[in-house]
## 1
Amino acid sequence: MANPKADLLQGTLDLLILKSLQLEPMHGFGIAGRIGQLSKDMLTVEQGSLYPALYRLEEQGWIKAEWGVSDNNRKAKFYSLTATGRKQLVAEEHSWAKLSTAINLVLGNA
Amino acid sequence: MIRKLESFFQRRRLETEMAEEMRHHVELQTELNRKSGMSADEARFVALRQFGNVASIQEQAREVRGWLWLEQLLQDLRYAIRQLRRNPGFTFAAILVLGLGIGANVAVFNFVHSLLFAPPTYARPVEVMRVFSQAKQNPADLRDFSYPAYREILAGNTLFSDALASVLLVVGVGEKGDTRRAAAAVISANYFSVLGVSPAQGRTFLAAEAAPGAGNPVAIVSYVFWKKHHFDSALLGSTLLINSRPFIIVGIMPEGFTGTTALFYTEIWVPLGVYDQVANDDKADAGRTLTDPMSSALMILGRLKPGLNAVTGQPALQALTTNLVQTFPVQQKDRSLTMAPPSRFASSNNDTAVAWVGALLLGMAAIVLLMACLNLANMLLARGTARRKEIALRLALGGGRGRIIRQLLTEGFLLAFIGGVAGLLLALWSSALLTASLGRMIPIDLVWSAEPQPALLAAAFGFCLLGTVGFALGPAIKLSRSDVMVHLKEHAGEDLVRRRWGFLPRNPLVSAQLALSLALLTCAALFIRSATRAGTGATETGLKTGNVFLVEIDASLGGHDKKQELGLYRRLNERFAALPGVESASVSVDVPLSGQDFEKQLRRVGGGLSGNSSASAKWNGVGEDYFKTVGLPLLRGRAFTVAEATQAGEPPVVIINDRLAKEFWPDGDALGQRLLLSDEGAAAGASTQVGATDPAVSKLTEAYEVVGIVPATRHNLFESTPDKGIYLPFARGSRSHVFFQLKFASLPPESEVATADLLRRVVSGVDAALPILSVKTFTRHLDGNIQIWIVRAGAAIFSLFGVLALCIAIVGAYGVIAYSVARRTREIGIRMALGAPPLAVQRMILRENAVMLGSGLLVGLLLALGIGKIVSSLLYRVDALDPVAFTVAPGVLAVAAFFACWLPARRATKVDPIIALRTE
């Protein structure tokens, strides 16, 4: 499947997921939609990476899952940030900023 | 960690949650698609496509959660068990093949382990060294020491913290008339402290008890001895008859302690103080007392001082040599001291030969295991080819390649594990059988136990692992590499790959397996030929012993005085000869294949003749009727007279064999010539020349006149030609340990037991205290010969290996060929439908497989030639290139391989073309 949109840099998916959960709890489909929406459809999240990533983050204790009812009245699993998850988000945002600055410097765009 | 554990136990709930979550995702996506204007079906289809491979994503998600490997292992095991149960025929064949392979390995390992690797049973064996007196001219000439030399070594030494002295003996134990022979050691008082072992019960010997001539009859027995007495609590302090003398048991050694040897148990220990009473003439040192400085009976083992080893101890050893040569200038002339780790056996340095046999056995067993693995790999491959579709399906449905390999490996390991357990049971059973059969031959307790040892279990497990890797990994990798689309579409698994090297064997594994089978089979044939030869060995000793009974007696074990023996044996001989049905009876010191070796140095009297003038020869002391009784014809001259055989004062005469006659008097008549004899031959070795300076030669006072010549007889099974030998009249060449031969007119097998009883009664009628060691027919004597046993055991083991190899090779070849033919059923159907005659099709298949079979057989033949060369030293009078073995073995295998080819081919051509075409 050809993908004209930008590929996700490895390791950034975690950051995107954490960021999209910053405001409110969301289910998996919602997270994927939110990332697409925020990136103006430049980034799409493959489901094949999304769910393993969600389980991994849950495993690490950065997000937690609860069953709730979605907008269209269906049972869905909602993910929300935990306290450590918030800290992790701050840390990752910080390191991403540093990284992107560094890369821009190398590319001579700063 | 706890979360992971939690998730493991809640995996069922998590699983449904995951499925539900993903379904929810797809539903939302479907809705979204519908909003963008798709039909219901299309929306759902696109949503599913967008989501991707559900199973694969779930699998990835599971992996994140951990504990997956355990989950998968359980799953794999369940699946493997299901697979094995679904193909009981395959499973049974695989377990049988593996069980036999592993069983052979474990049995041989058990044997080789106790032979070579089991550590000595005393403390810190590395510190213990055995001291020898070595001839400077001839490094192979090693001697032990006299008691005075032992005292001297102890006194003047800076090398050892302490050193023990010990003499290994075979003694008669038990009640009169029912004498059992047992391994015993006559030891110094510090024996147990040097070895670092303390008794399980009672005490060790006191210094006073071990002093020369103390004569205090005390004994210590082994745990095995105690076990034989059913752990009698009253054993300590009870009386034990050793060579018919009462000894009081003062100690019992702990379980597992074998004394200074590693291969068999010392059963009884007595102090050096009773040496003169207990030492019998089984030793070369006959008649010498303990304190005689000319003796060399004492084995000395020392424990090195801390910090010293075989190298750093050399200066101290040099100092000891100097000291000893000064004190004993005659005995230690041209000799120096050496030290070496104690041999695993009693004798000096035959460890290498045993190691070699062990290595050979291990090698053979390894070949069988290798073949079993090759065979299983073939079977698994063939079966796996049938499972290609299943595997392709699993790959298509999102199964990871690693996962599939793991699954196949699990199956392999399960098979190996079951096969290993089967093999272990088989090995224990066969080891017990081997020990029991060896135990009947020799009067000692082998350390070699059939009980499972940790090392044995570890070895079995190791073989299982090896087996798994060997036979499961290859096929697993090959199968999982398959191209999904090709295999899903393919027809009945035909070979789609065009083979670039068509002339090479289609399946090298089968060729390799055939080659190994042929090598083993040929070896087996060589050994079976040996055994047949050895079985008829009785006639080949040169004697006619058809109706001959043997009675083995040792008066010294019954505490008789050596001076009475001659008369006693004479009376017994007369009683035997007078028995009804006995044609003649005689006494002799030795019988062929007795396992004993008595040598004397000979010198021809009178120079100026051609031929050698000195030699060493086997000797035997015989009665006047010996040659008549054992059926040995006199070539020239006469037998001994009654007077010569019974009275030492008669003129010295000797009967020689034709080999010796030819060597000493090549062109003259040996009759009437004279010989000088010396006893030192055995101790000094054949290389020692008889010279006037040697103190022993001073005994060469009388010259023996040759009065008769007899044919040379084979004394030892492995002699290529019979050795030189002489016969002395019994009165001049006698020992306490003798054999009586009785030739019966007829000896029906059913009367054997009654005759033996009768002979026992005759012996006790002459002297009730005379210990009978054995009463048996000459044929049984040969059956019990240890060399014949080795050849027969070798033949049995190798026949077993050979039959194993044959079965494995045929099962393997048949399976693979049958499978490859079955896969071509469609093609054969087409050929037949187009009018090919069945015979032509059969020939085609045979021709195609001929390369594989032929190359296997060729390589196998070369291998067999090599192995035949290696084992030729163990073969009994069979050439390493024995034509019979080298035609029968390849013949059998070739015929078997031909049928393995032909039967499936015939079946394939019998199939109705229509049915064949419709296959799949």
## 2
Amino acid sequence: MNISISEFDTEAIHAFLKGQERIIVSAFESMDQGISIVDGDLNLVAYNSRFLELLEFPSDHVSPGDSMEKLLRFNAERGDYGPGDIDEQVESRLALARRMEAHRFERVRPDGTIIEIIGSPLLGGGFVTIFNDVTERNKTSNLAKDAVAQLNCYRQALDIHVGVAITDTEGKFTHVNDRFSKICGYNHDELIGKNASILNSRHHDTAFFETIWQSISSGESWSGEIKNRRKDGSEFWVDKTIVPFKNENGEIDKYVSVSTDITERKTAEDAIRRSEQKFSSIAHALPLPFVILDIDHEKPIFSNITFRRIFSGPEDGTATALDPIFVDPANKAAFFGELRQAGRVRDYETQLRNHAGEKFWASISADIMRVGIEASIFIAIQDISNRKRSENAVREREKRLQGIMDAVSNGIITVNHLGLVETVNNAAEALFQVSKDEFDGYPMQSLFDDGDPLGGCALEEFLEGSDESDIRTVEISGRRKDGTVFPAEVSVRQLHLRKKRLLLVVVTDMTSRNAADSEKERLEQELRQSQKMEALGTLAGGVAHDINNTLVPVIALSELAIEALQDNDDLKSDLQDILDAGTHIQKLVEQILAYSRRDGPERRRLDLTEITKETLKLLRSTIPSTVTIVDSLMDEDLPIEGDDTQIHQALVNLFVNAADAMDVGTGSIEIASRVETFKPGELPDVAMEANTDFAILSVRDTGTGINQDILARVFDPFFTTKEVGEGTGLGLSVVHGVVTGHGGTVKVDSVLGEGTTFHLYFPLLDLQMEGTPHEVGSE
Amino acid sequence: MARFLIIDDEKMVRSTLRKVLEKFNHEVLEATNGKEGLKVYGDRKDIDLVITDIIMPEMEGVEVILELRKRTPGQKILAISGGGRTKNQDYLKTAEQLGANATLSKPFSVNDVIATVRECLAQ
């Protein structure tokens, strides 16, 4: 309760207030307005809290009995009256109040609120003032003003762009704006008072106008498009809205029409409609199913009859969503992905499903088409089931054929009429080291080495006179990609496909065949050799007996005869020749027997050192004294298993051979021995399971040496460099036969003019394995 | 002077040996095969050395050696051979094992014969 009642000087008020105090107080407080009461001396008597609130007086600053001047000064000081002299502002307001006249004015407070102040004098002096917040009320009245201004703007805009006409209930023009005149080609005066029907183009029937009339005469507005005729007779389209207006009595007294010229749009629409009709009739007539989708949702906006027949069934006339027609949704995603990326897709092959659920192969092409700002997707579908079926059949056949070709170990190449490679098999790839991709268009000439009959123009010559049943074969050199060559057998057959010549070329790599051939040859030679030896053995066995018997008188009787003759007898040298010849035959037979006997040596434990030393003793009497024999043999026993006669024979042969190699019959032969261990594989021609110790006898002569060309052949039977009659050609082959027969091997080093060294490798007996020495059983 | 019995089917071998031995003043008896050789040999104890071939028709030298060893255990025998007739085989080793005092391969030189004969007679 902010109302404070102080003492009242005036009796009447005092008495009034006394009686009505409670009512007034509560009435004051319930008011939405502020209220203040001042006495004749302009001192504040009473006020309510709304008064303090509206004028923003702090409650502790105002109390009953305050002079009006104090309140005015407070206001002036805080700027409520705007800029200016404060005393003057206060004095002018006090002067007004002193007149004690009724007054009403609005005051705008600094915060923008507008306060309406109404003062009324009281009987007996003083007056009561009502303060009212009219800010909102003033704002509303401003809006109405703004709205009128805005409407004027609209009207101006309307007059520029839209034709406005007002007719009376008869249909006669009472008002037209400039725009309306311009649209219809009549000026203002020509229209006023005329019936609107002067614009009738006869395009619409009477029913059309009756409908309009019914509508507007019943008080409803009408909107629609009307085709009218201008003054000059040309026709034009307007988009028209007619609104009926009623007078105070509720009767329609005028019609306001608003018209927009839409002739251009109408013309364009007509063109589009005609075009659409044309398009649609063509589209439906096409046997190719196609559909147009909106770009955003891929929903069909048009599909032709063929499309609907296939995908929607005969009953359904509407376009079908595209999702169910793709058998594999992944394909649909891939298709649209490609379309959106490239803007178009051509011949995308995929499986589709028709309305009956049957799958078929289709080739789909699509374009994103833009018409103005709108884009849509145009999709055309082609049924390629038949093509696909035949393609598959062809592919299968090709696959089978390629499989067969690839299984063949010969290179198979087809060459077209231009001489370029068309197809190849795996073997051809491997053979020429050219990949299938690289082979595509590879010239046939490049397949063969230069100068070969197939290398270029000679092909025609090669094929001359051949027909499709002929296969021409030639052995030439094939050329790999890297230029290396290989021996090849090439068979060519020509075929004619669609009048074009196709060459079927089959290439066989002869490298391995040639290698096999030479291996076969070697084996055959070996076989021949061993057969020869076997025959020789048989022959020797059979003939040796007789030859030896025959030689008995030849040799012995020659000797006797020589003995009997005088030294100067001419016959003596003749007889000596006979004796020499006989001795030669004897040696030949011996060698043949030794050679053919080599496979069956006796096996017993021997000391190689001992045998060698014994042989040396014997050799000293055989070898010419001009040849020095150097003994560099080690003293240790060299236990081996074998046949002493054979070893003896081998050493004799070696020494005789060495002595024969001495150019002038002088020189030296050194024999040395040593022991060496070999790992399996280290000695060629010797099979070993574990490391083996070998005794090596090396016989080195200071002879003429052996030419490298023939070094490899010295062990061949019957190979000799000696004059006919001097050598048997079996000496070194016996050496070789004996040593290999003992599980060893022979190596030979030779330097022309310096001499030759033969190394004889004999496997040593493993004494630890053998345990106590014992005789190994003979055969 | 010694007495020899030569058993060999080859006439030229017999005659050559005869010529060589006679040159050294030895007496020579001949037989053309083992059977005949043993017949000539008979019970005689005056043959100093029997020279026998190994491969012969009628009776082989090997049989001759065995038979002689039976009749006269101390009989000196020299086996000679020109090798096998059909097989490349050395029969002289066999002869040695059967008790031939020495062996000699055909053909041989005069020196071979004289040396071997001397060796045998000296045993």
